[in-house]
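Example record used in the benchmark description.
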Amino acid sequence: MLSFFNSLDYETTTIPELITQSEFIGKVEIVDVQKNRFKIKILDKIKGSLNDEIWVNKFQNWMCASRWTDYSVGQQELIFLNKNNKTEKWYPIGAGNEGEIPTVKDSVFVLSKNYFVQKRGQKQFKIHNQKAYAYPFSYLDTKLGILSYMENQKTYAEFSCDEFRNFKTENLFLQGIVLQITPTNCEEN
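Model output (structure tokens):
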């Protein structure tokens, strides 16, 4: 029985992986919900290009992961999408629903279950009528952090351990991204 549960383990999709693996990144609002899909209205595009409204397959809760709350009209989120080439349907990235990050007004809440590394503490918030532990960021910092990472990804990949240790930025979201790509042999003890 234990080996069955071990086979269900999955690796969390990190923020850098979400950025590089997605075809579309944007701030969206859910405008319709059906049994297996939801319709989003694009509020702001960060990466890729889509129509103003599209249908997206819902994340299906499973034994090892679930969405932070039920889908409902009016929810806003930062979404990382890919398109299934066979079905032509869009879906959020991540077996743990990492590709749907809740937003409220101008704040982005990276949920603790997504293992976003930060030097400041997580707090509990009420996000879309659900309590969740998260790291809050401004939407502007999040967007600028994603754009900076996309623009400088090759530079970060070539960092030495000293460059990783000494990397500083006022953008805490970007700081978290760079911490996530820091090789384990470079981490300070």
